[in-house]
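Handout, section 3.2

Students often ask what a structure token actually looks like in practice. Rather than define it abstractly, here is a full record for Contactin-associated protein-like 4. The first block is the sequence as you would receive it.
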Amino acid sequence: MDMGTKRVAGIIAQVVLLLSSSYGTTGEGAGGWSPVTSDRYQWLEVDLGERTKITAVATQGRYGSSDWLTSYLLMFSDTGHNWKQYRQEDSIGSFPGNTNADSVVQYKLQQPAMARFLRLIPLDWNPSGRIGLRLETYGCPYTSDVVSLDGSSSLVYRLSPGPRRLSRDVVSLKFKTVRNSGTLLHAEGEGGLSLSLELERGKLLLLQLRQGSSSEPRRLASLGSLLDDQHWHYIAVERRSSHLNLTVDKHTERVQIPAEFSHWDIKQLRVGAVQSPDSQETVASKRNFHGCLENLLYNGLNLIELVKHKDHRVTVMGNVTFSCAEPVSIAVTFTGPQSFLKLPGTMASTSAGVSMGFQFRTWNKAGLLVTFALPQEGGVVWLYLSEARLRLQIHKAGRTLLELTAGSALNDGQWHSVELNSRRGRLSITVDKEEGGSAQASPSPPVTIERHLFFGGCPTEDDRQECRNPFNVFQGCMRLLTLDNKNVDLIMVQQKELGIYSNLQIDMCGIMDRCSPSRCEHGGLCSQSWTIFHCNCSDSGYSGATCHSSVYEQSCEAYKHNGNTSGHFYIDVDGSGPIKPQLVYCNMTEENTWMVIQHNNTELTRVRSSSGRNQHLVHFNYSTEEEQLSAAISQSEHCEQELSYQCRKSRLLNTPEGSPLSWWLGGPGRGHVQTYWGGAQPGSQQCACGLQGDCLDPQHYCNCDADRVEWTEDSGLLTHKESLPVKSLVLGDIQRPGSEAAYRVGPLRCHGDKNFWNAAFFDKETSYLHFPTFHGELSADISFLFKTTASSGVFLENLGIKDFIRIELSSSTQVVFSFDVGNGPLEVRVESSILLNDNRWHRVRAERNIKEASLRLDELPAATQEAPTDGHFHLQLNSQLFIGGTASRQKGFRGCIRSLQLNGITLDLEERARITPGVRPGCPGHCSSYGSFCQNGGRCVERANGFHCDCGLSAYTGVFCHTEVSASFKSGTSVSYTFKEPYELSRNSSALPSSIYSDMTLRGENVSLSFRTNQSPAVLFYVSSYYREYLALLINKHDKLEVRYKLDSSRDVEVLRSRVRSLANGQLHTVTIRRLTDSVSVQIDQNAREDFNLTSDGEFNAIKSLVLGKVQGSDDLDPDLARLGSVGFAGCLSVVQFNSISPLKAALLHPDTSPVIITGPLVQSNCGSSASANPYAAENTHHLSDQSGSVGSGQPLVNAIRTDSALIGGVIAVVIFVIVTGLAITARFLYRKKETYRNQEVKGVKQEDSPDFPFNNQADSQNVSCENPKEYFI
């Protein structure tokens, strides 16, 4: 009922004013209520006469005064005891009050409260006046049917026999109890199957049981916490065909139920005590429910009302009453550092000793429970929690006389009993009686109380030093305090008639479970103390205070632009969204960055004819889940998958007019039937040759449909994203005699990230884009990249009535994240040491959750701001979301914003920018930000979406020109690079890399290379000319480097000798030589540069060729150099560069288009890598061809389905290769045979090959690694 429709009659007349002390009140009739003393120990209590549905409260100051409240708490109770604080949004404890004495401030309760008693506790008031209040409460009478069960009583509802088959069953009820365990509801059905709702340690469990089974019940769900607090809790169970919706109070969990329950009908509902297995009687047990039930409904039928009317369908067992008899148990809450309770020591201590007991519950591992001084000088007893265990310590004169320990895990939020007894020289402490533990000391020092006992902590002002606390204060609840076996009347304490206290909440337990429901997202583990909770995000793939933000990038494209190279990566396609991260292979060796997702059979697989089988059905299981696949395909710009069919007497699609003989299923879910083949268009029922018009038989649209006895093939790429990936394959023409076929479905390959490059350019401060309201009530994360030349501007703003969220560039070095969730603006700032208006991309990541707000800028440490401990949870916004500006059109942003994501969802800036004046879609110019990734002379080339590293002028290769090009040389290996005139090269320049151009006459050189060898002397490098001039680089017999220049054929050679020793030690060395006319510098590794001067004219004329390795047949050489050159070089050469020429790279990567001649075996390898220290080395070893490899947590990397023949073939191939490596001609022949055999056998033809099966399976592009040796024999 709306709060304004009905006000409870006579509420004001029924107000009973109760004060926390005997100070009384000032009564001024209509003037309102005001206590004599204005402090936080006062309250106003309202007795509504009966349970009432309270929907709102309104406050006003005292009439004609300066007395009003500015904030207050609301408490509710059914009995006038065991109060429960009302919290809006489960967090805000206090309500804002008035600002003057006359205006009325009314608050509608977000969730109505059902109670008879209401208590208002003033927190703050007008500092110029005193506490003053006029109060109105709004609501309507609350009627309900209540029943009380005593632990041995129960209600049994038997359903009418016969078929029912309801589409849904709903059971709902409210309950309250002080017991933390007991069976609440038991539903029995057909086949001995049953479902049970049970309380266990204050949590509600949904269990599946099977009659007659000895196995433990299966837990289906757990929900709620602290349900033994003697307050009403709402439960609803809604059963549908395949799932249950379980609700506890305001929280609902969807539970998938076993398939056997899909046609399960309930035969009987039992509420309360459990029935004995061998009788019709209930048995008394701690597992039985003891407490009250209210409004027990089954499919809308009120079962308690049926009991009242003695309906035969409901059977009552045991003692059942139609009212709720509640035990009165006064609890006290120690809220914080200033909380303590001081009681007279004479209550617990006699001449015979000390006896005390109490119960407590807490989330904290440590805290003082009770302490008192001993009559002996300086003696003190501490009973405290440490590491969640109970410890007792007697201390005197600076030393510990006695220490006892009992119990464990006492910070679990459950009630635990403690007893301390000291009698006749024997001291004992007991936790939880027989269920817990105890410790004792005999004999023990005499224990009596000198003056007072202190519970929870010590007064801050204690002139007598009666209380000392070297431990943490206690935060939690206590109840059932007994001293000398007599109960302590805490109501007398509350009325200040007994003891002294501070900062206590009496007659209530204010414990909260901050981990139920858990605020930790994505599987993070929640733990808590009294005031805060903590999320352990280890192994979840997410980070932050609530495990909200993904630690992984959203695509391979994003990893590339972080500077990563090819390898396996986890990608999280929706960032902080619900889709889990997935492991994919990122191939960055091409211009496009490919994401590769494997399935269980990417091999070429043979299918033979089989009588009695008309079709061959194959299913493909991918390494990622369906939701991950769909999202990855959706965000990619292009996806493709190879589909190949190789056939002999096995037709494929028949004709376009007839039904296809074979088809495949692709797309979301199980896939949709597709009747076209690789290389053709969807719906065409054609193959690639039909589209191109070059099929073997013009009458058909596939080569295989020609039905020939020779092997033929239909293959191509599937590129229609809506049809990908391929889920199943059905081959239909395999049953005829002589029919043979083989199929291959390659891995799914996608490139591009539509979200990563989605950008908009704002060219005016008044321009902006607007989007629908951002909904980030509990958790909000915002990430984007920006670049600008302006020094300030608002990136993003969204407003509410009071709440707002904003991110802005406040200065050229500072980004500010600010927001308000109803308790005042908060700001998080990050200061950069570099200018942010440098027209380079900068990344901003902001997150706000119920624990904290954080802001990250680029790779700087995150700045954080803790949320108020008792603040709002929900961010409530209602305006449009403004990007690049504000609603007021002031302080707008000028520049580019890219890849803007809110809670993992990318906003399409480009689409909105196309229709918005002052904003342009896209934002070019990426090399200024990413150009530094291009290493070793690589050139950054701009692309519309991103950049590309051109390695043409570099001796390196790879996506960032960082991969060394290395080769192993043997003594007979020679690589000769012939220089040509520019006009000769220009004819075919389009087909040649730029690294093979040269000038013929040089006045200087830049030479660099790396080598590794144990040979000396040895020639590393030789450049000749048409005029008998040359340059040679060699290691002499003393293991030192020599550079020999002969730049004038009429003069002797000039020898430049380095002082660096031991270069033929098998280690990697790097040499750089630079000459400018007659000045030469030589640097080896990290040694000092050595400078030399030549006596010649400094020109190297008409250079002819460059030789690496063995120098053969040159009449221009000096005899000594000719002798050394004929020996050859055995070792490793890497990244050889001569000016802009990379001869080794040309020989290994462009042998057909470069002027190189290779003699002898040349093996490409990674021998020039400085090894293991290379951060990319380990990454590059994990290729999809490594069948048994694993990454991270041990997930499988690739399809592991291999046949024995494939494994044996691989072993045989390796053995053959090892045996014949010494024979050059034979090696060449066997090498080719090995490749053929390996391609046909190892690559996955799963049945023995016939000699006329000519097709080789082509390896995936990602299977080719620079670490796998390639041999060239000339």
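Discussion prompt for tutorial groups: The longest strand covers residues 105-125. How would you have guessed this from the sequence alone?
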